[in-house]
Amino acid sequence: xxxxxxxxxxxxxxxxxxxxxxxxxxxxxxxxxxxxxxxxxxxxxxxxxxxxxxxxxxxxxxxxxxxxxxxxxxxxxxxxxxxxxxxxxxxxxxxxxxxxxxxxxxxxxxxxxxxxxxxxxxxxxxxxxxxxxxxxxxxxxxxxxxxxxxxxxxxxxxxxxxxxxxxxxxxxxxxxxxxxxxxxxxxxxxxxxxxxxxxxxxxxxxxxxxxxxxxxxxxxxxxxxxxxxxxxxxxxxxxxxxx
Length: 243
Fold this sequence. Notes:
The chain is α/β, with parallel strands linked by helices. It has 11 helices and 6 strands.
């Protein structure tokens, strides 16, 4: 399991945005087994229910990672598993997605509330808006946004809203500090959803964590720049293996 990496996707857009990254990783290192796993499809908006389902389903003693919401859930699961997790990597994931006074580098609470209300009223229109937000900052944002939306799975509003509520409830700061394994945090400098300032906040929170910034990239850099992201991930994995 030391050579297995489990990747969890972000909210609403399914597994497709991560597939080019998986192909790039396996093309660069055929010995690394990368496994994409969908998020739970639960009506529950309680993060612990989502984590319990993932803990039951996912293999032990492997690397855990994910994009955006997937990375936040991976962080919580890594802390829960402790030594039974090989290491953690997150891609465009904030420690808190919704801002509060002690973590301002996040989406304002009023903006998130409006977004959730939009999802409750018209989920397809909200997913379209979300795909454009994910692509904002990319070299060709409209093209990237269309790619994200075209491959998004059909989900009912109840599951989408539950995912948003989990996203709002998660605060991974304690989990990040509690997990003692190897950790890599990658961010995008033109991300419209997770401010690039989060990289510095995570560094201050954790001290010696490994982090990196993908230049001129959007929140969807996993789809926009898969080879570059894969190269950074593999460099980190090899560095850890040599320690």
